[in-house]
Design brief:
Length: about 325
């Protein structure tokens, strides 16, 4: 594997999950792969899980790890070509990227949607520049339109807990005070469609996702109807995608908060969320603390998804 930015890069999903479960049984079996190899993780945005789980996965594989927080201690980076750099940005990505590539073997990049320009976000201009100019295999640690390490961990978690071959998985919008990118819901939809689950997306009108990610999923505007018979409930907030409201918050309606009454409509569903989560906005204390909540094992599987991706990228170096 030479890059990891979307579900297509991982190939056959059954094989990827089988590899994940093998890695989970013995995390230190492939230490020879990472010996004398260096991972550089570059963060344009904050992180808890991605930072720690990816670093741990790299250490499990015997790698050295360097972390750069671009907004804390590094030069501010210009990302657009052709800009007259007379402002506060001291360095251009077009120099910084190959320099960073010269110090490492693999590069992970976190760069969220900025909501300033939909085309810039959906063309993944920052991530694509790393792929083009670093000279190294690049993987996404959440980009503008996708969060594939999270979605892979979500898939592993569902496969570990499902009780039927083709479970009903409902991704529901839920309220949040701020405008959040569509990367997690886009990516989750992409992976659930690829897994061929019975996949439903529930959201208020105005929160339609990019049809390229919705694919063949059933879309519901009645959250309660969507939740009926669900085996897994995946809650997430996102800002509007459709023009002219791209990046805007259209609703903070707590009628969409996932609570015990809504979970009672399901097939004794498991509750999932990628974290961090706003309690009593997205989900009530009662639901997230219930025995059906998978948020902690789901986060723990981030180490596993990252390790499979790093392992395959290291194998691709040989
Ligand atoms: N789920 C997730 O990516 O968490 P962080 O933003 O803390 O990395």
């Amino acid at each position: 594997m030479r890059k990891f930015t979307c579900v297509a890069d991982i190939g056959d999903l059954a094989a990827a999950v089988a590899e994940a479960l093998e890695v989970k049984r013995d995390r230190f079996a492939y230490q020879h792969l990472g010996r004398n190899k260096t991972l550089l993780m570059i963060f344009f945005n904050s992180s808890l899980r991605t930072r720690l789980s990816t670093q741990k996965a790299a250490m499990n594989l015997g790698m050295n790890v360097m972390v750069l927080d671009v907004n804390q201690g590094a030069w501010k980076l210009e990302t657009e070509r052709g800009v007259v750099m007379d402002g506060d940005k001291a360095e251009h990505l077009l120099e910084a990227i190959p320099v960073m590539g010269s110090y490492c073997d693999l590069i992970g990049v976190r760069s969220f949607a900025r909501f300033q320009d939909k085309t810039e976000d959906y063309e993944e201009r920052v991530l694509e520049q790393f792929i083009r100019y670093s000279g190294r295999p690049v993987f996404s640690m959440e980009a503008a339109t996708r969060h594939p390490l999270q979605s892979f961990a979500d898939l592993i978690t569902i496969e570990e807990h499902k009780r039927t071959a083709r479970p009903k998985v409902v991704m529901t919008w839920a309220p949040h005070p701020n405008a959040l990118p569509q990367a997690v819901p886009n990516s989750f939809a992409e992976w659930m469609n690829a897994a061929d689950y019975d996949f439903v997306i529930a959201h208020p009108e105005g929160y339609e996702l990019d049809p390229r990610f919705v694919g063949g999923a059933r879309v519901e505007h009645d959250q309660r109807r969507a939740l009926e018979g669900a085996d897994f409930v995946y809650a997430k907030n996102w800002a509007a995608y459709a023009d002219p409201n791209y990046g805007r918050v259209l609703s903070r309606d707590r009628e969409w908060t996932v609570d015990a009454e809504k979970m009672a409509l399901t097939n004794d569903a498991f509750f999932m969320h990628c974290l961090p989560v706003r309690r009593n906005m997205i989900v009530t204390d009662e639901v997230i603390e219930s025995p059906r909540s998978l948020v902690i094992p789901e986060a723990a599987n981030r180490e596993i998804s990252a390790q499979v991706v790093l392992k395959r990228l290291l194998e691709g170096l040989e």
